[in-house]
Automatic annotation (TrEMBL):
GO molecular function list: oxidoreductase activity
Transmembrane segments: none
Entry-linked Pfam families: Nitroreductase
The protein's name in its UniProt record: SagB/ThcOx family dehydrogenase
Domain (Nitroreductase): residue spans on this chain: 81-250
Domain of life: Bacteria
Organism: Streptomyces armeniacus
Species lineage: Bacteria, Bacillati, Actinomycetota, Actinomycetes, Kitasatosporales
C-alpha cells in the first residue's frame, strides 16, 4: 500500500482538499470526454493565431526592447545541480538589465512562433508580468513582457516595492530584491479547448516557465525564489488584471544572490 514517508497510510485526498480532488477527477481524459473535445477545438481553431501571438497586448504602453545580447550560460546540467531557492537577505549588487533580459529570454521570450516552454495545444495561456523594483538600467514599475517582441511594456510607472511587500505573506522575502516575475493564467485559452483539464495545463505551463526562469537566474548568478505566499486578489489588483479572465498563478522573486553559505 502507498505510504507517507513516516510509514503512515496515505489519506484519501478528499479529506484535505475536496475541491482539488473533484477537479482532478473531472479533468481526467476518458474516452467519452476526450471525444467531446473535437467540437470546441474546431470552434476555437480560428482564434489560434491571435492567441499565440499575444502581439499587441499593452501595445500602446511605453516599451523597453530587451534585445540585449544574452549573457552566456553554463551547461544545463551544471545549472540544474547548482540551483537553490534564495532565502534570507538579498545581495547588494543590483540585478542588471542584461541579466533580466537573459532570464526572460530563456524562460519566456522568443523571436519566432515557438517559445522556450511547451504549451498544451499551443494555447499559451500563461502571460508574464515583471514588477521591477531595483534593476540597474531599468526604471521601477510594473511591466508586461511581450514574448515575441522581447519588450517590457510599462503599465504602471510607480515603484511597486511597497505594494508588492504588502501583497506578500512574508514581505521580508522581497526586501532588497530586484524584480518579481509574475505569471498569470488566461484560463479560457486552454479551457476552451480542454475544459477542466485546461486548468491543470495552465498551472503546469507556469511551472515549466518558472523552472526556465530559475535555471537562467542561476546562469546569470542571480538568486531566485518561487513565491506562492501572496494574497491573490491584491496581486491581481496590482497588475490591474480583469480577474474574471486572468489571475496570478505563480511568482518568482529575483535578486542579487550574494554569498551562499558553504555547502548549500
Ligand atoms: C510552487 C512553489 C511555491 C513556493 N513558494 C514559496 C514561498 O512562498 N516561500 C518560500 O520561502 N519558498 C517557496 N518555495 C520554495 C520552496 O520552499 C523550495 O523550493 C524548497 O524548500 C526546496 O528548496 P530548493 O528550491 O532550494 O531546492 C516555493 C516553491 C515552489 C515550487
Amino acid at each position: 500500500m502507498l505510504a507517507q514517508p513516516d510509514g503512515s497510510p496515505v489519506s484519501d485526498p478528499r479529506a484535505y482538499a475536496p475541491l482539488a480532488a473533484e477537479l482532478h477527477e473531472n479533468s481526467k481524459f476518458s474516452r467519452d470526454r476526450q471525444a467531446n473535445f473535437a467540437e470546441p477545438v474546431q470552434r476555437f481553431e480560428t482564434d489560434l493565431d491571435r492567441l499565440r501571438g499575444g502581439g499587441d497586448r499593452f501595445g500602446k504602453a511605453s516599451a523597453v526592447v530587451l534585445d540585449d545580447e544574452p549573457l552566456p550560460l553554463a551547461p544545463l546540467g551544471e545549472l540544474a545541480a547548482r540551483r537553490r531557492s534564495h532565502h534570507g537577505t538579498w545581495g547588494d549588487t543590483p540585478l542588471t538589465r542584461r541579466s533580466l533580459a537573459t532570464i526572460l529570454r530563456v524562460g519566456v521570450g522568443t523571436t519566432g512562433m515557438h517559445r522556450p516552454a511547451p504549451s498544451a495545444g499551443g494555447r499559451y495561456p500563461v502571460e508574464c508580468f515583471v514588477a521591477v523594483t531595483d534593476v540597474d538600467g531599468l526604471d521601477p514599475g510594473i511591466y508586461y513582457y511581450a514574448p515575441h517582441a522581447l519588450e517590457l511594456r510599462r503599465i504602471d510607472p510607480d515603484d511597486p516595492a511597497a505594494a508588492l511587500r504588502k501583497s506578500c505573506m512574508q514581505p521580508e522575502d522581497l526586501e532588497g530584491a530586484g524584480a518579481v516575475v509574475v505569471l498569470t493564467g488566461v484560463f479560457s485559452r486552454s479551457t476552451s479547448k480542454y475544459a477542466e483539464r485546461g486548468y491543470r495545463f495552465t498551472l503546469l505551463e507556469a511551472g515549466h516557465i518558472g523552472q526556465g526562469i530559475c535555471l537562467s537566474a542561476e546562469g546569470v548568478s542571480a538568486g531566485s525564489l518561487c513565491l506562492s505566499g501572496f494574497y491573490d486578489h491584491e496581486l491581481d489588483g496590482l497588475l490591474r488584471l480583469d480577474e474574471r479572465v486572468e489571475s496570478v498563478v505563480h511568482s518568482i522573486v529575483l535578486g542579487a544572490a550574494g554569498e551562499r553559505p558553504a555547502g548549500s
